[in-house]
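Researcher: Next entry: PucR-like helix-turn-helix protein (Williamsia limnetica).
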Amino acid sequence: MTVERTVSTAALDDEDHRNGLSIQVAASAADSSSTREREVIAAFSEITTEAITDAKLEDLLCLVGQKLCQLMGVTRCSLYLRHAGGKYRGAAGYCEETGNISEAVKRQESGFADDLFSQEVISTKQPVVIHDALNDPRPHHRTMAHWDVRAMLGVPLIFDDEVIGLIFVDTRGREHRYTDEDIEVARLFARLSALFISQAMLNARLRGQAAEIARNNATLAYLGDVHHKLTSAVLEGADITTVVRLLSELSAKPVVLYNNNFEVLTWAAPPALAFDAPPVLTEKVRAMPSVRQTLSELSVSTPSAVVPASLAVGLGRRHLLCRMVIEGTPSGFLGIVEVGRSLEPIDANIAERGAMVLALQMLSERRQIETEGQARDDYLSDLLRNSRDKEHLVRRGPQFGIDLSIPHVLIRFSVDDAPGKLSASATQNLVTRTFQDVLGIPAPPAVRLPGAVIVLIPLTTGDNAEIEALRQQVTAVRDRLSGQLALGATIISSACHTSVDYPHAHRELREIGSIARSFDWHSRILTLDELGLFRVVISSGHVKEAVHFAHTFVRAVRDHDDGTLLETWRAFVAAEGKAQATAVALGVHENTIRYRLGKIKEITQKDPTGLDSLLSARMAFQVLDLAGE
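Model: Predicted structure:
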């Protein structure tokens, strides 16, 4: 009995001892768990204080990473946040050795196709442990090797049952064993962190929106000031060059105004840049497919675009181009060049507003020019029709750049009015612009009439030599126009010295223009002075009779001509009845001329040296020449 009692007592004592150890272990575990929870709460106390101060999102995330490292006994933590499109991009990071590593983490991305580790954390919404990062197939091995990761724990940041971010912890270059308690602490920490982080993200978005609203308000205020300056300048009488100069000042960059062919109309640049020529888009640059595509896409809905720099074709600067449209028609480009300062979004607004103001100004100037041109055309019509008194015409002339105190000539271009040709105004403008280019004078007054354009050209003396010199210039004008207009005869009037000369000259031009069509003078340039007595015939309306007279007058000599008589008779008339001059012209002896004149007298029964015969012969030969016979 004693032995049994002793054994029983010993057994009871041993059981009590084991129970005591279990109670101690449980108590120790409870104390440890309680301690970790208190550490988590203490860590979040600091994070809460930081969050309350409205700290930057990056600073708050960096603090979260630091506290988690301390709780987990690891040395590195990186945090990723979900962005639009579902991508998870690096947001912040902490390393015990170097501190804030956010800039390096921001260059990283998680959850992509080859990152099965992150995808598992996202899809399961649970912590995931990698014990051997270099051999486990789930992580992206190149990233693991770059960051020297051996073991890693990934924990989702969950808010409103959605993964808004990811937390990764590891100890750089060393193994680390993550216990179940570590994982639970990380899960708890991530859950609490998600609350603060989601609020911080919301605050960051609100601050960003507020800042964007403030920037937009500032931009609107600035653009309002830009618009006010531009419109005020125009209202004060600023021309296009002044407006372009103002745009250059507002943008602090060179500004170039082009026409549709990219010819520079005007330009300006800040004086500090010391430009002596505009920075333009060359034809070589515009021929690039990318540039052609950019230019072709400019429209009302896409008013501006940037042509990127391309050193391969010599384009070292970016060009912001804005399409100018006037009355629905493309009318040029406004360019701002990236020199001195970088192009900014505000430059596009400046260019678009500037292009609008310039388009309106150009439209206004065009309307004014058209109005003034119409008034000048009306004045010239009055001058040609003699529908106003002389004093009125002389007084109003200087208003249109016409000084009737100096001589002028009228030049009549016969023009085909067939359908499909240029409009009347376009034809008139083409003719006057060509005169401007060839003669180097301002665009001359002109009027478009049915079948013709009449141009008024000032002279210096009005003598025959000056008109003959002008005839050579008119030939150059006609050569340029011949490829663009269907031209008939071109006729130059005699010099007009008084207002009453113009209606008479215009009437003669019209009458000779009509005769020119009959004689098929479509390629000739005539002066009224060279027509001589034929002008009288034309004015009488007996052109057919004049041609019949000419043929009858020379028929007898022509019928008996041996090839020399008619030639001699023409030369004798051209030499004004002088035998010696005729001999020199034909290269024969003077007696030969007298012999031939005798034969002509014998055939015609008229003395070719007589004044009456000379006048008749002159008229006959001139008619035949003009008739092309």
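Model: Note for the record: The first strand starts at residue 76 and ends at 82.
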